[in-house]
Design brief:
About 40% of the residues lie in helices and about 20% in strands. It has about 325 residues and is of the alpha/beta class.
Length: about 325
């Protein structure tokens, strides 16, 4: 049952990284996966085997999209929730490739573009986004890992410059960029002796793709899990002081994994229909109008399918008010 608007409370921001969504990208062997495995209760969805030298990793190998869907189903289990709090997806580009293969297999084609009217791309985007959002809705934090890519462009003066960004398809980028709280690039700076120091860059520049929802997050952080935790905590402290944000040490995990049983909802809908029509047969037109407003088209109660149970439940809520 959705909460009423008058029940909504102010959002709280936690100082730690639990339940947050982060994208890390950089060159191969830059420490992306190692850092991700330091997140609280991390399980590694390994779309590629980049964990061989990481002793504290908890890897789950994924070679096809059905493996991923099976794993997401397991995330709902209380036994999984007791052990893990963060899901690492390594890497996004391979995950997208497997999603495309899955949609192609469903439609009996070899290439996603072979599905008529661009339907394959739409289906792939919906499938990829749905699975990713499912993880967030279950209350887990998410770390997305991507390799970096670079391209050369000329500026207004005709000078060439290297542009660095995550390496994955545009449609995947649109989904991932919309979900994450931090997009960080892992790079290195060298001292006079050629000794490198790795940093996490969190602010976009003309040559670098990055960003953060934390207004006061430092644009350059010495790379490491604890360094990131400290930088986020400092940014949140500033938000509390300057903007009046409500801050807690650990945010409560809010999930939307309430499960509606289709047969139960349908049975209630049918029972309410009978009661409402018994009061006045003209109420039938009112109910059908409510269904049309919710669904965007004319439908009967009997036409609702199991994957529309949430929408059918909205109809039931309206019918309860009528009773």
């Amino acid at each position: 049952m959705p909460k009423h608007l008058w029940e909504v409370e102010q959002n709280v921001i936690s100082r730690d990284l639990r339940g947050k969504y982060v994208m890390l990208y950089g060159k191969p062997k830059s420490g992306k996966t190692t850092a991700a495995c330091s997140f609280p209760g991390a399980i590694l969805f390994a779309f590629e085997r980049g964990y061989n030298a990481i002793g504290d990793a908890y890897p789950y190998d994924i070679t096809k999209w059905s493996d991923y869907k099976f794993a997401i189903r397991d995330l709902e289990d209380p036994r999984t929730k007791e052990r893990f709090q963060t899901v690492i997806i390594d890497t996004v580009s391979i995950a997208w490739e497997l999603c495309e293969q899955y949609i192609c297999a469903q439609n009996g084609v070899q290439k996603i573009g072979d599905i008529a009217w661009g339907g394959g791309y739409t289906a792939c985007k919906k499938e990829f986004e749905g699975c990713l959002r499912k993880i967030t809705q279950l209350g887990y934090g998410v770390v997305l890992i991507a390799h970096s890519s670079s391209r050369t462009e000329k500026d207004a003066d005709g000078n060439e410059r290297e542009i660095i960004s995550p390496e994955f398809p545009k449609r995947a980028a649109e989904i991932c960029n919309g979900i994450v709280d931090i997009i960080g690039y892992i790079g290195a700076e060298y001292d006079a002796d050629g000794v490198p120091t790795r940093y996490l860059y969190t602010r976009e520049t003309p040559t670098l793709f990055a960003g953060s929802r934390f207004k006061y997050l430092a644009p350059k952080i010495k790379f490491g899990y604890q360094e990131l935790v400290d930088a986020v905590a400092e940014a949140i402290e500033k938000s509390e002081k300057l903007d009046g944000a409500k801050v807690v040490d650990k945010a409560p995990i809010v999930t939307s994994d309430e499960k509606l049983d289709f047969n139960t909802v349908r049975a209630e809908a049918q029972d309410l229909w009978k009661k409402i029509i018994a009061k006045d047969e003209e109420n039938a037109a009112t109910i059908l109008k409510k269904i049309e407003m919710i669904m965007g088209r004319k439908m009967k109660l009997s036409e609702f399918t199991e994957d529309q149970v949430d929408l059918l439940n909205l109809v039931v809520i309206e019918m309860r008010d009528m009773v």
